[in-house]
Write a structure and sequence with these properties.
- The chain has 104 residues and is of the alpha+beta class.
- The protein has a single domain, classed as Alpha-Beta Plaits (2-Layer Sandwich).
- Helices cover 34% and strands 38% of the residues.
- Strands 4-1-3-2-5 form a five-stranded mixed β-sheet.
- The longest helix has 12 residues.
- The radius of gyration is 14 Å and the shape is globular.
Length: 104
């Protein structure tokens, strides 16, 4: 691989990415939201997470592409008490969020 393609890969990994993620399974009343906030804070990801009335958890992650992808991978497992059945991801235009919050 040439140095130019390595630089292009690095730029893509660091470009701002926004993903809306819907997680289903046993993901409410198991600490999923607070664990998501902790993981996002460690990865320096901006966004938010909330429970939905239908039992799913919804989250939005914004940050460097490689870190957002790592956060999405984390969602497939979640905290130890969760049983994740499905993770649906939709990419959106970044809104340049700051910080990570728990929403109700």
């Amino acid at each position: 691989m040439s140095q130019d393609s390595n630089l292009a890969q690095d730029a893509a990994a660091q470009s701002l990415l926004r993903a809306r993620v819907l997680i289903s399974g046993k993901v409410q009343r198991v600490g999923y939201r607070s664990a998501t906030q902790d993981a996002a804070t460690l990865l320096k990801i901006n966004g938010w997470v909330r429970n939905l009335a239908d039992g799913r958890v919804e989250a939005v992650f914004e940050g460097p592409g490689d870190r957002v992808q790592e956060m999405i991978r984390w969602c497939h497992q979640g905290p130890p008490t969760a049983v994740v059945k499905d993770v649906a991801v939709q990419y959106e235009s970044p809104e340049h969020l700051r910080g990570f919050e728990l929403r109700r």
